[in-house]
Amino acid sequence: MTVTDAAVSGKREATKAANRAAILVAGAEVFADIGFGAATVRDIIRRTDLASGTFYNYFPDKEAVLHEIIEQTAGEARARVRAARREAIGLEQFVDGAFRAYFDYLVEDPLRLELLRRNSGTIRAMFDDPSVGAGTEELREDLVAGIAAGVLPPHDVDLMAAAMIGAGFEVGVRLLDEGAADVDGATRLLTTIFVAGFERLARS
User: Fold this and answer.
1) b/e map of 69-83 (b: 16 or more CB within 10 Å)?
2) Angle formed by the axes of helices 157-177 and 91-108, to 10°?
3) Residue-wise over 145-177: b if at least 16 C-beta within 10 A, else e?
4) Cys staple from 183: which of 27, 33, 103, 161, with CB 3.0 to 4.6 Å?
């Protein structure tokens, strides 16, 4: 490949990446404004500078757009939550830090907040998808590590991971429905519940 060919190829790849990103941003805006159910591919492409047929060079349908948006969102949320757990010193920080990192992430960006709020039912139906539900396995691994380090008492890590992920998700949905999300209150509630549960497990 010549230098000219490499430059042309690089420019082509950059254009593809930019087009894909533009479609994802437009999709997020449309899903936030009118909801996934009401949205059409035409609604999405109208919010870009791309020709109508260009959409199908990148995505087969609107479902694929939502899936990629949620996959990216879930990936960033998991990274923040896992970092908080791994930086924790002691039981309370392990629980509090993770829930707080998750709730803070949900509400920090207005567009993402509205997207998640308006489409929570659709997103809940995607929860069993490996890319979306991977946080459960990561939490399970961290619970095992916490037991080994003596931070957490021995317990059924599969059930606990399911309980913590489920509680975080459902409380997160309620936060999204609130006009002014009470991140502190939600974090305090779940931290109180799970810390007390871990302490009871330790005594038994």
Assistant:
1) bbbebbeebbebbbe
2) 40
3) ebeeeebbbebebeebbeebbebbbebbbebbe
4) 103
d(CA 72, CA 102): 14
The Cα-based distances of 38 to 43, 44, 119, 176 in angstroms read: 9, 11, 11, 20
CA-to-CA distance for 148 and 172, rounded, in angstroms? 29
Concatenate the DSSP letters of all residues of 160-178 into one string: HHHHHHHHHHHHHHHHHHS
Instruction: Report the range of poorest mean pLDDT among 83-92, 107-116, 117-126.
Output: 117-126
- Please name the amino acid found at residue 89: I
Q: Is 115 in contact with 54 (CB distance < 8 Å)? A: no
Instruction: State pTM to two decimals.
Output: 0.82
